[in-house]
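Exercise 7. Given the encoded structure of a 962-residue chain, write a plausible sequence.
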């Protein structure tokens, strides 16, 4: 079993280096507390260098990583190494310009709940600077508050009014809602306490919905009051206050039906008495008079769970012994005695009025009132009033029987009860003022003040004129049918007068494709209604436009250069939209809008708007804003771009030399002018033959002079030193980095030719590409030689080459100077990898040496590794053996040999590695051995060869046979 794969090696080396870093002066800082971001908006995770003493940030010495922590696992989001940015999350964004300024803050665009959690920012500056910190991100969603109320409520009828406050699409799910009553004088504020609070309902996107309802019995003194719903939530800096659009007015006073009935009954009663008076005078002295029993008198309308008077009059009987009984017969069942009244009256010449008495019955809420009258002729009258509290379920079509028994005869009267319910009062279906695409929608149908509580509710969706059933609900029944993507909730309220009110709520996710322009219908059926009632609502689904971050082209804007700002506006519906651009709140007239395109997958529209400007230095820190107005928005939505990085690219002049013809041993100055750049931050480096000049290297003194003109900067940089013979034909170069305007380097080169010094031609190689183990010829010419007393030699590093060198004779030229050609021939081996060849010209008469160098373009070669062998081939247990492996054909010679057995890695001192030698291929070869003692097990052995230059790992495995 191997230790690691070759592809994992860079990561392992990086971890090993980081593990060995000591604590340096690098310190990071972030904002206090968690970062809170609203859903679908952009969030900035702050990470910035706080302390960094004596270090300069550059792309070559900086490593940054952002990871998302989930439990014990970590997911890479963003890395920056050696100037290369790798963004794993497409919504993650971090500017290289801000990185090199010490700001490693990560921008997350269009944040959703999946982004909630911990993020780790780690910064590494080799060789010994490292720090990391953790940032917590919380995603929040503001509630949408809708208040539902009746438009007008009559006060004084004893009825209730219901106020509903609906919260949708908020997170976290903890909220606080209060109903406040403001009295007409606005002096007194009352907190309404009799609240009905539904538990939060979670939506598929983790947001919640909730309803807080209050039922009130307003009085006359409340007329003029207003009601407010106060919503407190973590996302709201202040309570969100929404007014209930309800008006209280005093009810009209009407004459009750009972008063009219009472008047009629009273009139009838008086008429009967007057008529009977004359007859009683005669009849009371001669014979027994049987009772006259009237028909049972019923109210015009008997209402479910409302007291009704059922009256039976018995008149003109004598003597006074009489029995009156009330019976009830329900649904063909046996008769049930309600009340029996037995009374004996003593005759008298004077009429006597007995006070009405009240008697209990064997039925809840049922009772009997009676009244007696005795006249001078000793005849009597008896009125019995049965007060019933009927129930439509049990008492409708029930038979009421009144039986009268008297010595002169018996009578019986009966009647049937027709118990009615109260039909519900129906309003319009309530919907939110704005219905948003892909958001939870609640349609509310208030059904009020009905009884009994027998209600059938059906919701339909009308598609192409055909009703499709979505929900069927019946009170007091287990019947509850609902289509999958729809849900149905019912809030029921009862009043003291046994009336009921229901809010039927259809909840679903509204989409443009499925619901825009579609009709939803609620059908209500009640026993008190002749026909079912239907109410329709037509949906207008809208989608609020999303505005992407304003993009800038070019990314690094330049002064007096065309700058294009673009913003993508997408995911909106309907198509009509207004787009505007502003600069510091002043409207910009010239901008373009692309054709509005519709995505047929979800029917949403999108467009791109661009604004072209030519910025000047005065536009720095100007705020550009793209603003859109749409039917789905209560207020315009906008994104902003601040012109913070306005820059002007530097112009670099050619390098000049003073004096024009420099001489050995005499001071010279190279000068380069960099002009018309902004901002001031600029980096200038001098190089000699690709080696950066540092004042500590004694290669010269660098001086700089800065000036400013019309707001733009100018800088003159100079390099001063006393040249030697080594400076002949040396290439001096200036590199200018102005990161604010461009990531590209500006360069100017100057080749130094010293007065009186010989010149070297370019090196020529044959073949042009050198190969290991093959002969190579390297040649160069020296010309402008002033005398013959010279020598030409070749060196490999500091070692003089004595063989393979061929120098031509001195050739006199037409300008009275000499020329010589020198050639070096040798066999290329791995020893020549990254070794310099030096051509040395010596003027013996002046004792001056001039040198030209070349490094052969040889490639590094990964070693070949043979199969592992054992000696002996089949060793015995507890015996000794040696495992060996040949390593060949590699360059350079630096290798690392690792032997392992299972998880055990052998120490370096236990391993034998021969000194590498050049073989017939011109490359290095060596042998490695591992002495072992044989145990009972037969673990697998592994030999890994790490080649440092190519960073390759070659692995061989061997299973020992015992």
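Solution.
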């Amino acid at each position: 079993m191997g230790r690691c794969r070759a592809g994992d090696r860079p990561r392992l080396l990086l971890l090993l280096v980081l593990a060995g870093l000591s604590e340096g002066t690098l310190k990071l800082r972030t904002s206090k507390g968690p970062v809170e971001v609203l859903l679908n908006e952009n969030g900035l995770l702050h990470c910035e260098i706080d302390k960094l003493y004596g270090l300069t940030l550059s792309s070559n010495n900086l490593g940054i990583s952002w990871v998302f922590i989930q439990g014990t696992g970590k997911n890479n989001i963003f890395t920056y190494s050696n100037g290369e940015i790798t963004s794993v999350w497409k919504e993650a964004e971090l500017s290289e310009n801000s990185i090199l300024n010490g700001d490693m803050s990560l921008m997350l665009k269009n944040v959703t709940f999946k982004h909630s959690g911990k993020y780790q920012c780690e910064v590494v500056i080799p060789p010994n600077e490292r720090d990391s910190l953790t940032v917590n991100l919380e995603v929040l969603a503001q509630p949408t508050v809708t208040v539902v109320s009746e438009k007008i409520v009559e006060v004084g009828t004893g009825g209730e009014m219901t106020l509903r406050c609906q919260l949708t699409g908020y997170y976290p799910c903890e909220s606080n809602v209060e109903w406040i009553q403001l009295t007409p004088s606005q002096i007194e504020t009352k907190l309404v306490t009799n609240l009905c609070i539904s538990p939060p309902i979670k939506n598929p996107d983790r947001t919640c919905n909730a309803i807080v309802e209050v039922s009130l019995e307003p009085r006359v003194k409340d007329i003029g009051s207003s009601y407010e719903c106060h919503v407190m939530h973590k996302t709201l800096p202040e309570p969100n206050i929404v007014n209930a659009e309800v008006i209280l007015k005093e009810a009209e006073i009407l004459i009750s039906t009972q008063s009219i009935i009472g008047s009629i009954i009273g009139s009838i009663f008086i008429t009967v008495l007057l008529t009977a008076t004359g007859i009683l005078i005669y009849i009371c002295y001669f014979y027994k008079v049987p009772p006259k029993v009237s028909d049972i008198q019923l109210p015009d309308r008997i209402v479910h769970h409302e007291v009704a008077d059922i009256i039976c009059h018995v008149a003109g009987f004598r003597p006074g012994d009489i029995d009156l009984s009330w019976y009830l017969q329900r649904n063909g069942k046996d008769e049930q005695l309600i009340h029996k009244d037995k009374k004996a009256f003593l005759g008298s010449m004077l009429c006597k009025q007995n006070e009405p008495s009240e008697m209990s019955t064997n039925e809840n809420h049922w009772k009997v009132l009676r009244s007696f009258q005795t006249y001078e002729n000793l005849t009597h009258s008896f009125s019995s009033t049965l007060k019933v509290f009927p129930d439509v379920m049990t008492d409708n079509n029930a038979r009421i029987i009144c039986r009268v028994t008297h010595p002169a005869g018996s009578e019986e009267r009966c009647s049937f009860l027709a118990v009615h319910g109260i039909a519900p009062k129906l309003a319009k279906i309530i919907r939110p003022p704005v219905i948003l695409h892909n958001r939870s929608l609640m349609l509310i149908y208030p059904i009020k003040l009905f009884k009994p509580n027998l209600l059938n509710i059906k919701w339909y969706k009308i598609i192409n004129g055909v009703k499709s059933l979505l929900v069927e609900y019946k009170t007091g029944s287990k019947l509850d049918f609902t289509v999958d993507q729809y849900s149905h909730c019912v809030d029921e309220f009862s009043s003291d007068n046994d009336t009921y009110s229901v809010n039927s709520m259809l909840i679903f996710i509204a989409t443009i494709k499925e619901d825009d322009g579609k009709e939803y219908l609620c059908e209500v059926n009640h026993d008190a209604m002749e026909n079912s009632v239907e109410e329709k609502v037509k949906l207008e689904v809208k989608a609020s436009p999303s505005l992407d971050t304003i993009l800038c082209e070019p990314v690094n804007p330049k002064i007096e250069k065309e700058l294009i700002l673009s913003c993508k506006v997408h995911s909106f519906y309907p198509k009509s939209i207004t787009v505007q651009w502003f600069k510091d709140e002043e409207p910009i007239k010239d901008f373009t809008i692309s054709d509005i395109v519709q995505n047929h997958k979800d029917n949403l529209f999108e467009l791109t708007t661009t604004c072209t400007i030519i910025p000047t230095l005065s536009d720095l820190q100007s705020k550009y804003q793209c603003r859109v107005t749409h039917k789905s928005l209560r207020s315009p939505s906008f994104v902003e771009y601040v012109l913070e990085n306005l820059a002007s690219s530097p112009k670099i002049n050619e390098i000049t030399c003073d004096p024009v013809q420099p001489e050995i041993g005499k001071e010279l100055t190279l000068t380069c002018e960099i002009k018309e750049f902004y901002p001031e931050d600029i980096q200038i480096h001098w190089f000699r033959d690709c080696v950066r000049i540092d004042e500590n290297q004694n290669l010269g003194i660098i001086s700089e002079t800065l000036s400013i003109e019309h707001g733009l900067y100018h800088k003159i940089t100079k390099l001063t030193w006393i040249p030697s013979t080594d400076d002949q034909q040396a290439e001096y170069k200036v590199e200018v980095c102005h990161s604010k305007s461009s990531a590209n380097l500006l360069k100017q080169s100057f080749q130094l030719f010293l007065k009186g010094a010989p010149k070297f031609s370019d090196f020529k190689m044959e073949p042009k590409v050198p190969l290991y183990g093959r002969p190579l010829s390297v040649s160069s010419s020296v010309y402008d030689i002033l005398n013959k007393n010279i020598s030409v030699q070749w060196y490999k590093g500091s070692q003089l080459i004595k063989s393979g060198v061929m120098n031509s004779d001195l050739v006199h030229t037409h300008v009275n100077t000499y020329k010589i050609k020198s050639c070096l021939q040798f066999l290329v081996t791995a020893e020549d990898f990254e070794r310099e060849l030096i051509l040395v010209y010596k003027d013996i008469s002046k004792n001056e040496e001039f040198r030209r160098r070349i490094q052969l373009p040889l490639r590094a070669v990964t070693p070949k590794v043979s199969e592992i062998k054992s000696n002996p081939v089949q060793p015995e247990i507890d015996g000794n053996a040696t495992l060996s492996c040949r390593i060949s054909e590699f360059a350079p010679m630096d290798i690392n040999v690792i032997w392992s057995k299972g998880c055990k890695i052998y120490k370096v001192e236990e391993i034998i590695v021969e000194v590498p030698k050049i073989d017939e291929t011109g490359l290095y070869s060596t042998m490695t051995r591992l002495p072992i003692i044989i145990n009972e097990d037969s673990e697998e052995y592994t030999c890994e060869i790490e080649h440092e230059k190519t960073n390759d790992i070659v692995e061989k495995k061997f299973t020992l046979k015992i």
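Remark. Residues 1-23, 345-363 have pLDDT under 50 and may be disordered. Students should compare their own answers with the one above.
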